[in-house]
Structure to design on (557 residues):
């Protein structure tokens, strides 16, 4: 019977020009990506590393940051971060659990809440800053404080955590739910002991992304946690986040460049450490719970 | 209505289904099923795909409650005369008494031990007794020697056949009166399938078994009674029911007879 296609052989033949071109273009794109990262890193290391020392990490901010260190800034940053996570995790997980497990998929209520979450995600961070200042600092009377900053950041990363937790829950095998129901497990047991632990790696990714965004955030914090460089004593104190310090050094302080580079390097290392920790925890969890 | 046959040697109960229909919104999946499931025996439900066998199983342990828009009509009585379709029934307690094993093995993505610990603790077993009950039931399905050294490893590392036996052991661990098997072997290779079948066969006389299967030879091998489903007027119903040899020997219903002889469906 005649073939539909022209006669062909399976002899080896030179690669097609289209394949070669695509391979080259892909390789080139990768090189550009690596160059961008390499350039940023090289610049920060070249300018910042000479300025970096144990004293820089622990010392007080002197002369608007031109000399001295970033000790109080680091402490404030970590305090803001801890408060942000403490305020975002309960409502973030709760909202995702409600959307995934308690309300019928595609119902009006589910679509409304999902739409609201997506809208919140598209709000620019400066708007969160203004909202935080007016609501947390003024209306609630928390003032320029680490607490106000943490609450504002929590609002900002809430949609991110809801979305990642929701997709982690929805990507679990669908047959876990009938399996649990058929064993007579209550809804709370199914969610708390089966679904949430199974979705943990995805939730960790969401928290890590949230931490990354929080650490990188400047606009939402200038108006809420302020820029005091004293050692913070309580959550009610104003405290300058690392990104705010960086912005100040780079934009407002003449001759602040070297300290800015060193601070940026610290910020980068901090984010890398947090990402690595989350990846390590997720991998360990995975080895323990799922097929290798 | 015939009284549900009872067995004096054990505590498991039979089931009596009268006029059971299962509807999903406007679609009737099962219409007017009458079926007597004897105490401690193995009852097989056979018939072509999509004629409501699984829907009927889900009505018995009330998994139908989880499907929005699904309604069950008629009466399902257990051995003690409790109406299982009663909306006020404690369905969690019911599902402890009427276990289920699904077509696709569905262990929780946690350790083998957690797969037992979570349901056993949920139903009030003391923590100190979890290991003992787990071991007893893993032995029951011939899995203990294969997994006793890795109880804290993920259940998902087991093979498909081992996972299915784990699911049977997990269902058995809750000391149920009835276990519903929904095509328990159809996702397994022939060797694993034979092992699982052997363990279902061994449940005879200890627990009431209802098994949906597409494997007619399997139904004939292990079942005491068989119900044949067919589509009648757009909905699935039982067209033939009785002792396995009587039904396979010559069903009264023409289509059922051809199906059982391998000629249709």
């Amino acid at each position: 019977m005649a073939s539909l296609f022209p006669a062909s052989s399976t002899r080896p033949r030179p690669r097609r020009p289209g394949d070669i071109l695509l391979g080259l273009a892909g390789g080139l794109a990768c090189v550009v990506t690596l160059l961008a990262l390499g350039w940023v890193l090289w610049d920060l290391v070249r300018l910042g590393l000479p300025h970096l020392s144990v004293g820089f990490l622990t010392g007080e901010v002197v002369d608007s940051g031109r000399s001295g260190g970033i000790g109080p800034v680091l402490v404030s940053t970590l305090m803001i971060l801890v408060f942000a996570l403490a305020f975002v995790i309960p409502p973030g997980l709760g909202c995702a659990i409600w959307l995934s497990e308690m309300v019928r998929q595609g119902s009006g209520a589910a679509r409304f809440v999902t739409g609201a979450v997506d809208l919140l995600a598209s709000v620019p961070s400066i708007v969160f800053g203004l909202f935080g200042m007016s609501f947390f600092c003024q209306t609630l009377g928390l003032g320029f404080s680490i607490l106000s900053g943490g609450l504002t950041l929590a609002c900002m990363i809430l949609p991110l955590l809801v979305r990642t937790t929701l997709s982690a829950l929805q990507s679990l095998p669908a047959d876990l739910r009938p399996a649990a129901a058929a064993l007579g497990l209550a809804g709370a047991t199914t969610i708390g002991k089966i679904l949430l632990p199974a979705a943990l790696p995805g939730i960790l990714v969401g928290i890590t992304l949230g931490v990354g965004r929080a650490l990188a955030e400047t606009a939402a914090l200038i108006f809420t946690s302020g820029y005091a460089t004293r050692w913070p004593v309580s959550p009610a104190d104003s405290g300058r986040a690392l990104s705010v310090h960086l912005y100040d050094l780079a934009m407002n302080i003449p001759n602040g460049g070297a300290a800015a580079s060193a601070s940026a390097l610290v910020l980068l290392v901090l984010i890398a450490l947090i990402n690595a920790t989350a990846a390590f925890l997720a991998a360990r969890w995975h080895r323990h719970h799922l097929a290798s | 209505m015939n009284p549900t046959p009872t067995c004096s040697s054990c505590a498991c109960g039979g089931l009596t289904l009268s006029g059971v229909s299962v509807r999903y919104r406007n679609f009737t999946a099962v219409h007017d099923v009458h079926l007597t499931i004897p105490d401690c025996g193995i009852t097989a439900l056979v018939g072509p795909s999509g004629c409501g066998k699984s829907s009927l199983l889900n009505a018995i342990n009330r998994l139908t409650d989880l499907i929005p828009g699904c309604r069950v009509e008629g009466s399902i009585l257990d051995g003690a005369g409790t109406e299982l379709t009663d909306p006020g029934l404690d369905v969690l307690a019911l599902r402890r008494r009427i276990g289920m094993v699904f077509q696709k093995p569905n262990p929780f993505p946690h350790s083998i031990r957690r797969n037992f610990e979570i349901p056993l603790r949920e139903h009030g077993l003391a923590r100190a007794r979890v290991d003992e009950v787990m071991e007893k039931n893993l032995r029951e399905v011939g899995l203990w020697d294969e997994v006793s050294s890795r109880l804290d490893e993920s259940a998902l590392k087991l093979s498909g056949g081992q996972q299915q036996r784990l699911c049977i052991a997990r269902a058995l661990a809750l000391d149920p009166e009835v276990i519903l098997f929904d095509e328990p072997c159809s996702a397994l290779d022939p060797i694993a399938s034979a092992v699982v079948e052997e363990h279902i066969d061994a449940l005879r006389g200890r627990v009431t078994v209802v098994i949906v299967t597409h494997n007619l030879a399997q139904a004939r091998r292990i079942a005491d009674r068989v119900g044949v489903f067919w589509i009648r007027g757009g909905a699935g119903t039982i067209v033939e029911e009785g002792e396995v040899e009587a039904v396979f020997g010559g069903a009264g219903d023409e289509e059922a007879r051809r199906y059982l002889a391998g000629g249709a469906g």
